[in-house]
Design a protein that fits this description.
alpha+beta; OB fold (Dihydrolipoamide Acetyltransferase, E2P); elongated
Length: about 140
């Protein structure tokens, strides 16, 4: 083996050792394979199945859904679901990351009345159609 190859091999060995000892959060995208009472079964970066928890409040995840999984400080046993793929949840974005209207926090309002359930025009403070005067087919 020549001198150059030996130096490159030594440098690569030092880099590999440094990376192996490096502790930092890692985040990756994966799909939920199954939902169990113990948590969500996902595939980790190496393709192994892992059961993980979820830190997103007030959300129901389902099998097949794409999620972001975080490995805190390189601790594989502490990995958890931290976000939903293509969700703007978190980071002060204002989006709830849910498709369930009842879980939304900033629901729209009409005349100060929050739009939830089946509200009548009267409950929303809107006059009924019959109360408007129609002149030549124009309101």
């Amino acid at each position: 083996m020549n001198f150059k190859e030996e130096i490159l091999k030594s440098i690569q060995s030092m880099i590999d050792k440094s990376i192996g000892d490096y502790k930092a959060d890692r985040t990756f995208k994966t799909a939920i394979k199954k939902v169990t009472p113990k948590g969500y079964i996902i595939l980790d970066e190496s393709g192994s199945e892992r059961t993980v928890g979820c830190c997103i409040p007030n959300v129901s995840l389902r099998a097949g859904q794409m999620v972001w999984v975080k490995i805190p400080m390189g601790d594989v046993k502490g990995m958890y679901i931290c976000n939903i793929v293509e969700s703007r949840r978190g980071n002060n974005s204002g989006s709830s990351g849910t498709d369930n209207y009842n879980l939304l926090k900033n629901k729209p309002k009409i005349n100060g009345v929050t739009l939830e359930g089946n509200k009548t025009l009267e409950q929303l403070g809107i006059e009924s159609y019959e109360d408007y005067t129609i002149i030549q087919g124009i309101l």
